């Protein structure tokens, strides 16, 4: 701690016109990325969700995003600047299924949270800007989860999202 203070103390001399360093790390390519605008209204409608029926999905856990209500599913889009794919791998115990994959040439993980298997919920996590972006599909009728594949739908949405990520 003392060494860090001494190092920082040596950075403050002279030249008052120099910009102070920011806390934003270069690897934080998601800082100015708005995950809620990554898909156009037309693209959202193509998945059966209503671009005008958007809700905040920030849960105060370091991820920010939104949910679009629709039929057959609710589409959640979020970003987590501090959670890269390795961070998600360390949370494996929170998932019934968490498998590595690739979407539109971007590394990812497809996952179903613990207790959600067969309930129509799946997330596709994509590496982006030193963190991750998540596309989550939640079927509005839970019975749909027994006849359809929410992971296939999440990946289908992610195929449009992936090329637009930092």
UniProtKB/TrEMBL annotation:
* InterPro entries recorded: DUF3558
Q: Name one Pfam family in it.
A: DUF3558
| UniProt-recorded name of the protein | DUF3558 domain-containing protein
- Organism per entry: Saccharopolyspora thermophila
């Amino acid at each position: 701690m003392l060494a860090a203070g001494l190092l920082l103390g040596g950075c403050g001399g002279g030249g008052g016109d120099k910009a102070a360093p920011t806390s934003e790390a270069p690897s934080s390519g998601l800082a100015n990325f708005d995950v809620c605008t990554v898909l156009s209204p037309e693209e959202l409608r193509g998945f059966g969700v209503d671009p005008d029926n958007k809700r905040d999905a920030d849960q105060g856990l370091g991820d920010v995003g939104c949910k679009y209500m629709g039929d057959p599913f609710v589409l959640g889009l979020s970003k987590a600047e501090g959670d890269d794919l390795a961070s998600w791998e360390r949370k494996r115990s929170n998932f019934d299924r968490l498998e590595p994959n690739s979407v539109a040439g971007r590394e990812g993980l497809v996952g179903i949270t613990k207790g959600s298997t067969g309930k129509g919920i799946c997330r596709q996590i994509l590496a982006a800007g030193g963190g991750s972006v998540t596309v989550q599909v939640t079927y509005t009728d839970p019975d749909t989860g027994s006849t359809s594949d929410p992971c296939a739908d999440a990946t289908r949405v992610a195929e449009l999202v992936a090329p637009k990520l930092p």
